[in-house]
Amino acid sequence: MVNLLQFDRAGLGDFCEQLGEKRFRATQLFRWIHQRGERDPAAMTDLAKSLRDKLAGSAVVEALPVASEQVAADGTIKWLFDVGGGDAIETVFIPEADRGTLCISSQAGCAVNCRFCSTGHQGFSRNLTTAEIVAQLWHAEFTLRRRLGLAAGERAITNVVMMGMGEPLQNYAALLPALRTMLDDHGYGLSRRRVTVSTSGVVPMIDRLRDDCPVALAVSLHAPDDALRDELVPLNRKYPIAELLAACRGYLARAPRDFITLEYCMLDGVNDAPEQARALLALVRGDGSADSGLACKINLIPFNPFPASGLGRSPRERVAAFAAVLQEGGIVTTVRKTRGDDIAAACGQLAGEVQDRTRLAERGTRAAPVRVERRVAGPVSRRTGVAAPAPVRSSS
Ligand code: SAH
Ligand code: SF4
After folding, report:
1. 213 has catalytic annotation
2. What is the 3-state composition of the chain as percent helix, strand, coil, each rounded to the nearest 5?
């Protein structure tokens, strides 16, 4: 059986052709799946009967099994999905007054091994398939639409950020059709500026993304110089800062916004000193060099500690002082609000449970069955007392 979540619309067209059907039928099918959340071909009433019959025998819309769902006091929802083989991935929904953002995973684990990231500490297990990436959005969108009682044309998810587990640009082949499905007017219809790929700096793939599907780009910088960045983000040894910033400048030629977001995780006593802020400012302004510098916004992320990191969160005043240096230097700088940390859904906290399960798998022991722990049965608002996210009318 083929999982239809695997295909962007062009891929679905190829699949229809293989079944001996006209390519254009893929558009109708795609809309049933991604705009109406339908899984059952028999229910897709306006599809040609011949196609429905063929689909019934050869294809499914296979969602990911939910291992658990947790809702934070602020309305943030974290889903843990079982992706088999002892691996699980996490997806986080972040409701705000005027938008609903979904933070999606691209890999089970991550090979980059950043010092401050719990996903990195857990090691790399495997790439997710396109179907597994898209299934996170499919599940969130249609679960929330039902739960919130949204009318046709209203969307639960208005923004996607590839900031969950994994390095999306190290899983490019699967990422690309997933992005295309998110952007497709017959799919989720998200604009390029509402879909953000966050990367630790896989330089050649930044160039590919610019050419293939230039969505909003966030780059995890975390240090103003190579010596420190080599320590924090080991990939820097392969693609040092100068090359990374050059790739970012190249990306701007086609980016949907006229800036790149630089993420900078504030680590107590490691990268948060005023002189490091000044070095960062000089770096992004390109002081002393005509062809360097970068049009960017800087997003300071309070570090979310986890025991194995041995690192601490910068005090609030130090973050404010760091931000002030950048702002006074003319760089738009924001401090990220931490969401959902009471359920370990904040940046870099994902996948505590997976760690144990992976170790089980490594030992060759059969992984324990995933605990099904649905903590929420009804609408978010009823259970938590937190206002349900405001539905946002889709622009299409
Ligand atoms: N691999 C990609 C995307 C996933 S990580 C990347 O690194 O960009 C998403 C963001 O969370 C990155 O900016 C990352 O640096 C940040 N992050 C990781 N661990 C964190 C932690 N413990 N506290 C705060 N932010 C963290
Ligand atoms: Fe991987 Fe991103 Fe975590 Fe680094 S911060 S280990 S690249 S997920």
Report:
1. no
2. 40, 20, 40
Q: What is the pLDDT of residues 145-162, one digit of tens each?
A: 999 999 878 999 999 999
Q: Long-range contacts made by residues 360-369, C-beta under 8 angstroms, separation at least 24?
A: 360/86, 361/85, 361/86, 361/87, 361/125, 367/85, 367/86
Rounded to an integer, the average pLDDT of 114-140 is 96
Which residue's alpha carbon is nearest to atom 4 within ligand 2? Answer: 114
> Residues enclosing ligand 2, CB less than 6 A?
110, 112-114, 117, 119-120, 166-167, 200, 220
Distance CA 259, CA 216 (A): 9
Q: Is 90 a catalytic residue?
A: yes
> Is pLDDT above 80 for 165?
yes
Measured CA to CA, the distance from residue 192 to residue 236 in angstroms comes to: 27
Does residue 354 carry a pLDDT above 70?
Answer: no
Q: CA distances (Å), 296 to each of 161, 248, 287, 290, 354, in order?
A: 18, 9, 15, 17, 34
Task: Give the whole-angstrom CA distance, residue 136 versus residue 79.
Answer: 9
Question: Of 114, 117, 213, 347, which one is the catalytic site residue?
Answer: 347
Q: What confidence score (pLDDT) does residue 346 get?
A: 64
The confidence band for 57, taking pLDDT boundaries of 50, 70 and 90, is confident
For residue 301, pLDDT beyond 60: yes
Strands 124-127, 107-109: pairing kind: antiparallel
Q: Residues, the chain, total?
A: 396
